[in-house]
Write a structure and sequence with these properties.
The protein is about 65% helix and about 0% strand. It contains 15 helices and no strands. The C terminus is likely disordered. It comes from Gorilla gorilla gorilla (Western lowland gorilla).
């Protein structure tokens, strides 16, 4: 009886752009012991499994640094490159999970700088105009929630364009299936973000002229249109219905007004969510 050979883990190697590569080369020390040297050696490998070994060395190396490391341009640049690497990796790549674990385990005094670099890289991604890159960007949104307004604006833009592309591709079931998946992911990420808005933004967004409020209204309008569009998959429609309930529950207080709100203003909600706000006879009590 033959011995079954153990299947080796397949991990796609990470890569970086030429500019980031040159940055690492410029900061790498002669001894090859600083963070830039570690990352340079890592990205030059073509074996993803070996790269995991190097990624796991990031935190132990930074734990040796003191708080002055926050001002070290080498560490700042490396954190920026790490953020770019993380956002470039596929969700299915084991390297993304390992890198996420390392980033979450950074010494506390490095976290603000890491978040700043992460936000900057994500902001660049949010500016994409490539429709078929939206899914990748949406997958990365949950990793960086500090700039809610920017993220919500991207979600609103992407969902509108996905719906329009789906209309144009009527009859092309392969493309429409992918677009439906992208639409579903976008709606679910929106729901996840709105549950976090209170934690990250406090009460600053709770005014009708707040950019966050306006973007949430825009998303609410999109979800309502999706719910009423029978050409879309039932799963997408039902998820949109849940999103509507969640958004209304989050945005409108006190909760006793919600039944009146739904009864009196749902038709206005479909046309323009701002009507919902304006039709309330009494001021909202935040």
């Amino acid at each position: 009886m033959g011995v079954k050979k153990k299947k080796e883990m397949q991990v796609a190697a990470l890569t970086i752009c030429h500019q980031d590569l040159e940055t690492l080369k410029s900061f790498a020390d002669v001894e090859g012991k600083n963070l830039a040297s570690l990352l340079l050696h890592c990205v030059q490998l073509t074996d993803g499994v070996l790269q995991i070994h190097y990624i796991k060395q990031i935190v132990p190396l930074l734990e040796k640094a003191d708080k002055n490391g926050m001002c070290d341009p080498t560490i700042q640049s490396c954190l920026d490159i790490l953020a770019g690497i993380y956002l470039s990796l596929s969700l299915k790549n084991p390297l993304k999970k390992v890198l996420a674990s390392s980033l979450n385990s950074l010494p506390e005094f490095f976290l603000p700088e890491a978040m700043h670099r992460f936000t900057s890289r994500l902001r660049e991604e949010l500016n994409t105009t490539d429709l078929y890159s939206y899914r990748k960007v949406t997958d990365n949104i949950s990793s960086c929630m500090e700039n809610f307004n920017l993220v919500l604006h991207f979600l609103q833009k992407s969902l509108i364009e996905i719906l329009e592309e789906n209309r144009k591709c009527a009859g092309n079931h392969i493309i429409q299936t992918q677009l439906m998946n992208d639409l579903l992911v976008g709606i679910r990420v929106s729901m996840m973000l709105v549950q976090k808005v209170q934690d990250f933004q406090g009460n600053l967004w709770k005014t009708s002229d707040s950019p966050i409020w306006q973007n949430m209204c825009g998303l609410l309008s999109i979800f309502t249109k999706v719910l009423s569009d029978d050409d879309l998959l039932q799963t997408v429609q039902s998820t949109s219905g849940l999103a509507i309930i969640l958004f209304i529950k989050t945005m409108f207080h006190p909760s006793e007004k919600i039944p009146h709100l739904c009864a009196a203003s749902f038709s206005g909600l479909h046309q323009c969510p701002r009507v919902v706000y304006e039709q309330l006879q009494e001021p909202l009590l935040w």
